[in-house]
Design brief:
The protein is an all-alpha fold. It has two domains: 199 residues, Alpha Horseshoe (Serine Threonine Protein Phosphatase 5, Tetratricopeptide repeat), CATH 1.25.40; 131 residues, no CATH class. The chain contains 17 helices and no strands. It holds the Pfam family TPR_19.
């Protein structure tokens, strides 16, 4: 029977005060090292505090204290999964299901650990379906369904169902944006990731994906700038007409269209996302270097268009060509350093 101190720790945990609840669990374990309730509370707190190694130790102690308790195996599986020990995590989740087959959380964990393993996709989908059968109103069960689904429409529907049951479900919110992918505008994806971070500001996966969108914005503007640079340099070497300045006119029109496109894309973003993307851009030297170098090339291209002597323009074009290759190298460098989702 849980003591008053245990209930106090559980209450702190439910309030999200994980550090305080962990201290209560540690104090209880100081007097009773094998208390399963205190070990269970300690493992949960450490997982929420991202103390994965310590959580795994607590989960293993819980398994040793109560070998027939499926929750201990499930907590160990969660910790092993975070430590990227996929095979061991799957084995622990399977043990949890074997010990407590009517616990939907065990089937959810089995689905999440089986999906990344080759040859276990069918097992993952079956576990997710069983979790939904056992707990149809559990957001985690529908999240597992989306995580293991083969079709994009099924994934998106499952994640939306999970969010309808729990709007603060960070995993479902993040994965829904990933599943939407290129089917929606970048602006919509940015808003979606920011909505996830409003519920959980410390969710690293959504932060990383939002930074990845910054690279997509830079890439969009970059190729617009490169097209204008090549157009300007190419037209600068063409013969000029004294009565019809075709090359400068084409360049001005192209520059106007490119500027409108960039401004239109930027204006669609709310103020908050703009500040985030600008901060992410400024904090990455390779992005700043690529952007400034492209802007300098664009200025060079426009200047070449104003040179009245075609022969001089052609010589200048040859001089600028190595800078174009350097610019492409900078862009490739930026792509290599971009975060992975």
């Amino acid at each position: 029977m849980p003591t008053e101190e245990v209930w106090h720790g559980i209450h702190l945990y439910e309030l999200g005060r994980y550090a305080e609840a962990r201290r209560v669990a540690a104090q209880l374990l100081a007097s009773e090292p094998e208390d399963p309730t205190a070990l269970r509370l300690l493992a949960h707190c450490q997982l929420n505090l991202n103390q994965t190694d310590e959580a795994l130790k607590a989960a293993n102690r819980l398994v040793a204290a109560e070998p027939g308790d499926g929750e201990g195996h499930r907590l160990a599986s969660v910790a092993l999964q975070r430590l990227h020990q996929r095979t061991e995590a799957h084995r622990a989740a399977a043990s949890a299901v074997r010990l407590e087959p009517l616990d939907a959380a065990n089937h959810v964990q089995l689905a999440l650990t089986a999906q990344p393993l080759r040859g276990h996709r069918r097992e993952a989908r079956a576990a997710a379906a069983r979790a939904v059968q056992l707990a149809p109103h559990d957001a985690d069960a529908h999240f597992a369904t989306g995580f293991t689904a083969r079709r994009g429409t099924t994934r998106r529907a499952a994640y939306r169902r999970a969010l309808a049951l729990d709007p603060a479900h960070s995993g479902a919110g993040n994965n829904l944006q990933v599943a939407r992918g290129r089917t929606v505008r970048l602006n919509s994806l940015v808003r979606g990731y920011l909505s996830v971070l409003e519920h959980d500001p410390s969710y690293e996966t959504a932060q990383r994906n939002l930074v990845a969108l910054t690279y997509r914005f830079v890439r969009r503007y970059y190729w617009s700038g490169v097209v204008l640079v090549l157009l300007g340099i190419g037209l600068s070497a063409e013969p000029r007409s004294d009565w019809w300045p075709a090359a400068p006119l084409v360049a001005v029109v192209a520059l106007a269209v490119g500027t409108w496109y960039a401004a239109h894309t930027w204006r669609q973003l709310p103020v908050g996302p703009r500040h985030f993307l600008l901060a992410a851009w400024r904090s990455r030297t390779h992005l700043v270097a690529t952007t400034l170098h492209t802007a300098a090339l664009l200025v060079c291209a426009l200047v070449l268009l104003t040179v009245p002597v075609p022969s001089v323009a052609r010589v200048a074009t040859l001089a600028v060509t190595p800078l174009i290759w350097l610019n492409l190298a900078l862009f490739a460098w930026a792509l290599v350093l971009r975060p992975r989702r």
